[in-house]
Amino acid sequence: MERSTFIKSSLGMAGLLALHRISSASPLLPFNTGNMTTTDRIPLIQLNNGTTIPQLGFGTWTLTDKPEQYVREAIEVGYRLIDTAQGYGNEAGVYQGVKDSGIARKDVYLTTKVSPQVMRDGTVQRSLDESLEKLGGEYIDLCLIHWPVKDHIQDTWTILEDYVAKGLIRSIGLSNFNMHHIDDLLKYARVKPVLNQIEVHPSFSNMQNVGRTLYRDIAAQSWSPLGNGQDLDDPVLATLAKKYGRSVAQIILKWHMQRGLIAVTRSRNIAHMKENLAIFDRDLSPVDMSVIHGINSDRRTNAQNDPDNFPW
Ligand SMILES: NC(=O)c1ccc[n+]([C@@H]2O[C@H](COP(=O)([O-])OP(=O)(O)OC[C@H]3O[C@@H](n4cnc5c(N)ncnc54)[C@H](OP(=O)(O)O)[C@@H]3O)[C@@H](O)[C@H]2O)c1
To answer: Model confidence over 224-278: pLDDT tens digits?
Structure first.
């Protein structure tokens, strides 16, 4: 896929280490176990503002066909974190899926993202009001700046801070920010970003950005944790999957969890949705974690998908 097509479709034309922690009190989200074992639970990660977020969630990029169905199914099998974006064009459908699932609004964590387009157009405020309306009219759990659009980060962040002050957005964060973007924002931010959602998967382990983000007491969240499906054919991962008696997708997602990352993964297949949640009963060994680190080839899902090369 062409870089610009990828970015447009993805974004939609549309401290210290100890401070980042998996909550030691370990509140666990029980979910409908279906045919999984009852030991399966999604841990909660505590963010720097004291709120918690499920460590594994459901992504909705490209789910414009039947978002309400996929989101309802995802919630029914146990997901409690749903990731959307203004640019995905499916916020209203995502919320419909939440309603159809019958789950209380307070029991699901909804993330959306301010699109690069509205940042450039100067319509961030209006877009947030629209997102709020589409996502149920009460509040948004987490809103991210989708892309560090040159010259529009500070004004967007200030608006997001105002929405936090009004209680309309509970947490705010970043996506696709490199370290220099984060350090620049930290100079003026009144509200610290809770997380940075970045590309991470075995062929793009993104060690440096992950480590430096965590060191600043900002959580790191993996997008395309399965490499948009491209990492599922890796022969090393196939060997590990056989060794553990698990699928390749499960091995990859477990690797994200054991790195202390939060991840949002996507599927249209309910069996895959369930499978991807059934990873919390057994750990990968430290050696096998290192083996997976070794797969890294700095291969992004799109070769030029780096905000320093594409300031938008
Ligand atoms: N912030 C950003 O700029 C940004 C950019 C990209 C993505 N994201 C977010 O990250 C989310 C996840 O990334 P992604 O959409 O690229 O998805 P992904 O989770 O990396 O990969 C999804 C692909 O893997 C397949 N898959 C999932 N589980 C599987 C399993 N157990 N066995 C076999 N195949 C499986 C899916 O096919 P099936 O449908 O057949 O299961 C789909 O083709 C997005 O949906 C979006 O919310 C954010």
So the answer is: 999 999 999 999 999 999 999 999 999 999 999 999 999 999 999 999 999 999 9
Q: Is the CB of 266 under 6 A from ligand 1?
A: yes
Of all protein residues, whose CA lies closest to atom 21 belonging to ligand 1? 228
Ligand 1 centroid to Cα of residue 59, in Å, is 7
**Separation of alpha carbons 36 and 187, rounded Å:** 46
Q: Give the per-residue pLDDT at 40.
A: 52
Task: Assess contact for 195 and 173: CB atoms under 8 A.
Answer: yes
20: number of CA atoms within 13 Å, CB side? 24
Rounded to 10°, the helix 286-293/235-244 angle is 160
Residues 92-130 have pLDDT tens digits of 999 999 999 999 999 999 999 999 999 999 999 999 999
**Domains of the chain from N-terminus onward:** 3-293 (3.20.20.100)
Q: How far is CA 309 from the centre of its chain?
A: 22
Q: What is the Å distance from ligand 1's center to 191 Cα?
A: 30
Q: Decide whether any atom of ligand 1 lies within 6 Å of the 83 Cβ.
A: yes
- With tokens 């075995």, the residue in question is 202
Pick from 203, 195, 247, 196: nearest CA to 225: 203
Does 86 sit in the ligand 1 pocket, CB within 6 Å? no
List the beta bridge partners of residue 173: 144
CA dist 250 and 254 (Å) reads: 6
Indicate the pTM of the whole model: 0.91
Comparing CA positions, the residue from 172, 228, 163 lying closest to residue 202 is 228
Helix axes 248-258, 286-293, angle to 10 degrees: 100
Report d(CA 117, CA 151) in Å as an integer.
13
* 172 closest CA partner among 187, 159, 155, 188: 159
* Token code pair at residue 42: 């999604």
Alpha-helical regions (H) of 169-306: 179-188, 207-215, 235-244, 248-258, 270-277, 286-293
Cα 242–chain centre separation: 28
